[in-house]
Write a structure and sequence with these properties.
Helices cover 51% and strands 14% of the residues. With 321 residues, the protein is of the alpha+beta class. It has a six-stranded antiparallel beta sheet, with helices on both faces. It has a two-stranded antiparallel ribbon with strand order 1-2.
C-alpha cells in the first residue's frame, strides 16, 4: 500500500498536478482500499477467490468520462498484446528461420553456452506447469533466445526472451525468463531462514494467490545456480497512460487502484486481520498520504543523486537510440 501511495504521488507530479491534487489522489486510494477490504473481508473466502471484475465494472461510478474512455482504450490495446502481434516487431527472418532482432543495449545476442543452459532450464520449467499446460507448451520448439532488459525493478537482473514455434511459422509463443532473488524485506520477516527455497516459485505462487486471473503459463526454472520465473512475454497486459492526466481523473484512477489492491489482499485469510487493524477512521488514509509524499520526495532525491553520479563519471550510463 505504501509503495502504491508513493507511486501515485510521483505520477501526479509527473503529470503536472499540484501537491493538493496529489494528496487528494493518494488519500482516495487509501480510503478506497480501506473500505473495500473491510467489505470483502466480510464475505466467505471462497467467494472472494472466485470474484471477478471487468473494465466496465471498475469504471462505472468512478471518475470522469475521459478516464473511462482511457481505461477502455487501454483494454483494447491490451487485447492486441499477444505473441502473434509481437512477432514482426521482435523478429526477422534469417536463412529461412525467424530470429530475435538484436537492439543493443536492450536486446542482445547470447553465447551458445547460455542459450543451451536456458533451453535446458525450460525443460524443468515444463514440469512446474499443470499437466494440461505441459502438453500445450510442450508442443512448441525453442527457436531463439536473447537477453532483453525489461522494466525498472528488474534492471541488473538476468532476463531473457524466448521465441518458440509451434505447428507452423506463424504459430509462435514468446516466453519471458526473469531472474528472481529473495525479497529485500524477507530478512526482516523471516530472518536468515528462507520461506521459499526457490525464489521463482515464490513469485509464481504469490502471483497466483493475489491475482484474480494469472497467466496460466507461470512457472519457474533454475540455470547454473540462478533461479527464475517464467511467463508469457505478451499476455494482454495493459496500463493507462498517466502523463498529463487531469486531477479528477487521477483521483478516480487512484481510488480504482486502491480497490483492486484490496481485492488482491482479500484473497487471503488474513484480510480480516488487516481490516480490523485499519479500522474505519481516517487515521489510515492520513498516514498513507503522509508517507506517500515523504517517499516521493526521497525518490526525487535518489534520482538527483543518480544523475549527479552519471554526470561526474562515477557511474556509466547508456541510453538507447
Amino acid at each position: 500500500m505504501r509503495r502504491l501511495a508513493a507511486s501515485i504521488w510521483v505520477a501526479g507530479r509527473q503529470a503536472g498536478r499540484g501537491e493538493d491534487h496529489c494528496a487528494d489522489a493518494t488519500t482516495a486510494c487509501a480510503a478506497s482500499y480501506q473500505e473495500h477490504l473491510r467489505e470483502l473481508a466480510g464475505r466467505p473466502l471462497l467467494a472472494r477467490s472466485f470474484d471477478r471484475v471487468t473494465v466496465d465494472g471498475i469504471t462505472d461510478g468512478n471518475g470522469s468520462k475521459p478516464l473511462r474512455k482511457e481505461m477502455r482504450k487501454a483494454a483494447r490495446r491490451a487485447r492486441h498484446r499477444t505473441s502473434e502481434t509481437a512477432l514482426p516487431r521482435l523478429t526477422e527472418e534469417r536463412d529461412g528461420e525467424r530470429q530475435i532482432v538484436a537492439e543493443p543495449p536492450l536486446i542482445a545476442r547470447l553465447d551458445q553456452r547460455t542459450v543451451d543452459g536456458i533451453a535446458r532450464a525450460l525443460d524443468g520449467y515444463l514440469l512446474t506447469l499443470p499437466p494440461q499446460w505441459q502438453r500445450v507448451v510442450g508442443g512448441y520448439a525453442i527457436r531463439d533466445i536473447a537477453l532483453k532488459v525489461v522494466g525498472l525493478g528488474s534492471v541488473g537482473l538476468r532476463a531473457y526472451v524466448v521465441l518458440c514455434v509451434g505447428i507452423d511459422p506463424d504459430d509462435v509463443l514468446f516466453l519471458q525468463v526473469k531472474e528472481a532473488r529473495r525479497s529485500v524485506v524477507a530478512p526482516f520477516v523471516h530472518g536468515d531462514r528462507a520461506w521459499h527455497q526457490h525464489q521463482g516459485q515464490r513469485v509464481v505462487e504469490y502471483q497466483q494467490t493475489l491475482q484474480a486471473v494469472s497467466d496460466p503459463l507461470l512457472g519457474w526454472a533454475t540455470q547454473r545456480g540462478h533461479q527464475y520465473y517464467v511467463r508469457q512475454f505478451r499476455d494482454m497486459k495493459g496500463s493507462v497512460d498517466l502523463d498529463g492526466i487531469k486531477a479528477p481523473a487521477l483521483t478516480a484512477y487512484a481510488a480504482i487502484c486502491g480497490r483492486l489492491l484490496a481485492k488482491a489482499h482479500a484473497r487471503s485469510a488474513g484480510a480480516s486481520l488487516i481490516a480490523g487493524y485499519l479500522g474505519t477512521s481516517s487515521a489510515f488514509p492520513t498516514a498513507i498520504c503522509r508517507f506517500g509524499r515523504a517517499y516521493a520526495d526521497q525518490t526525487e532525491r535518489d534520482h538527483d543523486a543518480l544523475r549527479q553520479a552519471v554526470a561526474q563519471g562515477r557511474l556509466s550510463a547508456e541510453m538507447p537510440d
